[in-house]
Write a sequence for this structure.
């Protein structure tokens, strides 16, 4: 940690800051610069209260040096993790593809979608049963009934099931039906939920919050890892920016950046990341070319009649065409894709 | 709702879109423009699936006309709501001031702070017992023990207690000790929690998520109102922007803007909204001058030793001085402030 | 244009707004909704003063329907434009690759770079002679001397020269040496410069400003087109967001989105778009997979000794490897790349 | 400057980085941390090429310690600067108020506005003659004719004239008519213009670019100061964020933050900073309460007929009322306001 003193800091201020660094169990190295004094504090920075050093008189800024996460860090485990859950494999040169509707709406809808996405090469089925919705007046999901329909679709297609869980109380129930628990963007910092997912036997797909920094996202993963569940996939679903022509901005450079920092695999979500079906094929291909380990794509038999997210859902033909384009890119990258 | 067709839309596309508008129970008005056709759809827009119209062939864009929230809207209830919870009143020409530490750390700390902030004119005490922390390695709060210490401080000072609740399972417990439940920024879209808070007898302080739009924030309030709790205060605590010299950007224009849209009172949080103690006095005064109905300010006996948020906490003297400045501004605005 | 009245608007307010719409030469269509009145105004919206309608009493919002640009619009010219300037072709199934140093530093540097990037398949040479620098204390470029060195490099390699122009007064001079004038991000709304570039015989590469909306960017292109120069290439170089691990955020979905709206080709800049050399190869490949028409990449013989932008520059070997990866993706996309 | 090595950096990498630090004329201090090595480099960081250190093998990050600007810094000149230009004084406990239309449209309009704003207490007149407009189809200003009308208004009211200059070639002409040259947000990094303004006898009002960091803004001021003009006022006019209910987000904390870093006074622009006339009074008052040194407000005789920016312009009565509110806040702050 680097403690930068103000140029107006007195000798007493500097001595006090040094004492505070020592009282936190760190070793201070004092460097007198041309304009300011800087204290480089050596030791474990991940301790309670450390940022309060900034309140010491004469301190201008406190800059961390070490990543705040440990278990998620590639410094701890340099080789990339490969996560497998039923028919889904993500990482290790294989691009897993999760596809399906935003919400489970009926048996016909989910089973037909499962067969269709499998045929086009998807490796897992997504579908929401517990839906966190912005408005209390929107469709809230079929709940346990939806989970049962997902299980039916899995029985018929052998596709692994990825579905969202929104409350720690539901983790046990959802884990009975799902292969992968999805933690949604709105719940990325719902720490009780992260801890509960950390105790589930299922793998976890952890979506990035739309204003979360990468450190905050990896610290959220750290909660799950720290609770004992090593099977965490990160999912980039877009950040909120001034850009309004897309619903969110998909910062594709997250994929290679995150892969430098963590061993956890990263799945891209071009559906939420753009919010427009017409942009999904291009961003799916681009995700693979950028080196992402997986894709999650919204597919619906009739997007214009979907109860949620229709504007960003592909129909079956569009998904088939998207997958064909993705196969070519995966081959160019020497990677395998989906169920193939 | 306005449905804008693409300039390439065919007659068939337009007819299909009209039929979809009708099937949703809305009345279509077709306007043939110089370059495009537009369908103005009259009726209640707040229904499931409506945004999926965007997936109809030939549709370019769907623009809502009506605010998506109802109970929170000033169209429903034009007169501003005044919320009272114990010693705290927010709204109606009175600026309520909530002050105290980020976390309850000990009886000495919380009781001393309660007396100090009361002396300077605060109307309520804040203090976190259940702490949602970005890192699993940070101090996580004293939990129920912390709630008991808050109750002790209330017994001695008569200040209302404002404290955070992070899980629906805890709402009953926290409601036993608190006057106001705080829903934190990370949980603004934790809908189970909102519903549970909507059934509590306590008032609710609903913080804005750092990337939430104002519509999303008011829809979160709508969940609480819809569950039966009319005592909701909004709390603006800053949004995430590219600006990094402050931890968040406090968009003060939220106060007058929100007051045009909703009857719910709005409390500003200059501590989280700036992230630097030195900026808190100026932004506290500015909040009152902008017409905010309340303030929430972090105060700690020794900010440089706080277990959380020390860098943005005022010490007792700084808080007293801040309140003196705020009193002058409140008087210039013909408002009363805090406990006075 | 859609004029949304407030729910409190009086009959008189509505009549006044209708009269104002008519006085602007537009035809009003009045729709009485369940909660509000809406006026759909038909006619050419691209006229002075139109947004001032928002100031009429009782008006809540004014929403444009038609894109504000004309000449740049794919509504006017549906087939994509292909731009050729010397050895550089961008668009029409061909991905043009512009490569070279941020700044021209010496004859050795620029000539060696020209040969190296040509060998790896680049189709044009970039290099800055007039440098707009954030700090007055940074290297400001070699000016005309730098232009001459670029011309020398072109003489020896036949690569087209792309170089920045920062002032209308310099357009004539720079046009003598360059094949393509680059308008930098900081100057995207320097309208005098756009007008001057619009009169140059050279093609223009127009970078997006880091906080420009896509409409603002296309309107900047419109200035150049309107001044008589049809050879405009758009260049996406990243936007400013809260994300700080990359210097800017490269919103790759711009490529397919812009291609739906305009006939102008789009070039991606993964160097500025990420700000880290290690992320450039992945984002170069991803740009092609997303369907971009060109790439512009910073290459320097010794990035760690560059006078500017070294942190985001590739060395010759890194560029060769990046191009090899890009070739595979271009082939998978059925496109040709660079000089090949 | 702090050079953070990767945890995988070799001894050779570290030695190379040390050598590079030395070759830049800085003195390296090597600190071996528990997980990484850090090199604190002492000396003047404001030199060409320094950031290229990031490209040295094994270097993870380069963090500056010293502010990149000198002349603008309060480290160089601790006492705040007071700027006077004709009837306008900004700083030193006095809040200067600049008011007038976005564009000069006619003699009647500008003279009537000058008298009206003077009567309400404004200290200077604003009005654009050279207008940088997003669209080439919008009104572009009256040019020199507009400057003459501003001079006429000054002759009749004695109000100082603040007007925008958009090109270095116009600086001489505009300086003949103006008291203060405004550099607009779009031109904040038009360095030729900054240098030309630095040679004008007029004071300069430098608007912040909507995505400029505070360091970039102060470095733009540094260009003007470095060219010899000490009379620079900063103007915060809002930044671009995801928040779309206001046209820009006015980050009011800029005022106190900037005042800690620079001696230059800061003027707030609530008109552009909100984009809605109804929000201007609240944000004007808030600006003063936050300690701003001045205000710039758009005022027009008939906002609903303005040729530009009508939606954010106050009419004469609204301005009078706004000033009355501001006077009360200024008095509460022990400051004088406007012409009083």
């Amino acid at each position: 940690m680097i403690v930068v003193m103000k140029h107006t800091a007195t000798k007493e201020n500097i001595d006090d800051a040094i004492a505070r660094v020592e009282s936190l169990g760190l070793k201070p190295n004092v460097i007198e610069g041309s304009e300011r004094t800087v204290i480089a504090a050596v030791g474990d920075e991940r301790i309670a209260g450390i940022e309060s050093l900034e309140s010491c008189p004469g301190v201008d800024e406190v800059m961390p040096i070490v990543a705040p996460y440990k278990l998620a860090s590639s410094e701890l485990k340099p080789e990339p993790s490969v996560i497998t859950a039923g028919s889904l494999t993500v990482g290790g040169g294989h691009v897993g593809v999760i596809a399906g509707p935003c919400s489970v709406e009926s048996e016909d809808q989910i089973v037909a979608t499962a067969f269709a996405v499998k045929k086009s090469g998807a490796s897992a089925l997504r579908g929401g049963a517990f839906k966190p919705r912005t408005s209390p007046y929107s469709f809230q999901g079929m709940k346990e009934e939806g989970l049962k329909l997902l299980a039916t679709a899995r029985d018929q297609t052998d596709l692994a099931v990825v579905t969202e869980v929104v409350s720690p109380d539901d983790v046990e129930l959802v884990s009975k039906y799902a292969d992968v628990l999805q933690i949604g963007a709105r719940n990325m910092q719902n720490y009780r939920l992260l801890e509960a997912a950390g105790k589930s036997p299922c793998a976890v797909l952890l979506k990035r919050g739309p204003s979360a920094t990468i450190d905050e996202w990896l610290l959220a993963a750290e909660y799950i890892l720290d609770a004992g569940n090593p099977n965490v996939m990160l999912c980039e679903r877009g950040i909120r920016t001034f850009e309004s022509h897309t619903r969110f901005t998909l910062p594709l450079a997250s994929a290679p950046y995150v892969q430098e920092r963590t061993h956890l695999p990263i799945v891209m979500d071009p559906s939420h990341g753009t919010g427009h079906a017409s942009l999904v094929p291009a961003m799916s291909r681009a995700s693979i070319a950028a080196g992402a380990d997986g894709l999650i794509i919204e597919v619906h038999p009739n997007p214009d009649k979907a109860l949620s997210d229709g504007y960003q859902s592909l129909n079956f033909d569009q998904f088939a065409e998207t997958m064909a384009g993705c196969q070519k890119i995966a081959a160019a990258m020497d990677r395998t894709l989906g169920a193939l």
Chain C touches chain D through 53 residues (CB under 8 Å). DSSP finds ten helices and 15 strands in chain C.
